[in-house]
Amino acid sequence: MSPVTGTTGGVLPTAVAPREAVEKKTTPPRKGVRQRKITPYLFLLVPLAFLLVFTYVPAVNLFWYSVTDWDGIDLTKNFIGIQNYIDIFTKPEFLRVFVVSLYYIVASFLQMGFALYFATVLSFSTRLRNLFKGILFFPTLLNGVAIGLMFLYFFQPNGTLDSVLKIVGLQQLTVQWLGNPDVVNISLASTSIWRYTGLSFILFLGAIQSIPASLYEAADLDGANKIQQFRFIILPGIKRIISLSFILAISGSLSVFEIPFIITGGTNGSSTFVIKTIQQAFTYRQVGLASAMAVVLLIIVLIVTYIQRKLVPDDEVNLT
């Protein structure tokens, strides 16, 4: 042993360390390490393949069909450019469906308002609140076909609604609820409010109940009333759920199908965007035009989502 270095042969440890580090660096990774790196990609391979085959490939085909005059049967697809899109935004029969969508957009905002009101009231200590929760959520459990048939008899002449109005002495208000083009969309939009308020109510109620109870206790100690608690605690606390409900409401308003299709079949000026698209594809054999309408619907939803994200950014909410 060397008296100077304390090591055999007088070799300094500092002289050996860099060489070992270089050898370790140049050594290829072991087989187990490589397998651990590859395994996550193997698990992702199958779902990504399904996503590609069943989502993105049909979406690309949809864009291709929208610039052709394909009838859905012929093997030949003639390229016609943006003519289908020009027809959608110039012909009155297609512009009419955008006007009909406005009824459902207004109805969706009323639905969110009712749902937020009931969720706020029932989040506090209220008598029979579990009963009211069940009553509000019950329509969401019903099938769309059943709701359509139920309201078909509700709105028909001398039906349930007319009978109730006559009983309370308001028979002068009875009209052709489904036969009058000026009233039919109001009747159908009110049916959508009845059906979907329960879903928005559950979303809002769950978000409100996730707010810590200590915040309400501190607000009570500070003398805040219920309206102030709603404004400064509940509303900021459920901001993200309100934002999500806004997107769902707009997209749902543009894609309404079940209720108007079952009750009126799109007659008397009640044809929605989706009903018109289906009629073009399967009744008039204009699959190219129907594909263009589907693309327009997709673009509108993406634009609304983008605007919503800009106006209401998904910031972190701090209530403390």
Walk me through the structure.
71% of the residues lie in helices and 0% in strands. It is built from 14 helices and no strands. It has helices spanning 13-26, 31-65, 83-90, 92-123, 129-141, 144-155, 160-167, 184-209, 213-221, 226-237, 239-254, 258-263, 273-283, 287-311. It is flat.
Protein topology:
Layout: H1 13-26, H2 31-65, H3 83-90, H4 92-123, H5 129-141, H6 144-155, H7 160-167, H8 184-209, H9 213-221, H10 226-237, H11 239-254, H12 258-263, H13 273-283, H14 287-311
Helix pairs in contact: 3-4, 3-14, 4-8, 4-11, 5-8, 11-14, 13-14
Residue share in β-strands: under 5%
How far the N terminus sits from the C terminus, by CA atoms, comes to 67 Å
Question: Gyration radius, to the nearest Å?
Answer: 31 Å
The general outline is flat
Count the beta strands: 0
Number of helices: 14
Low-confidence runs of at least 5 consecutive residues: 1-16
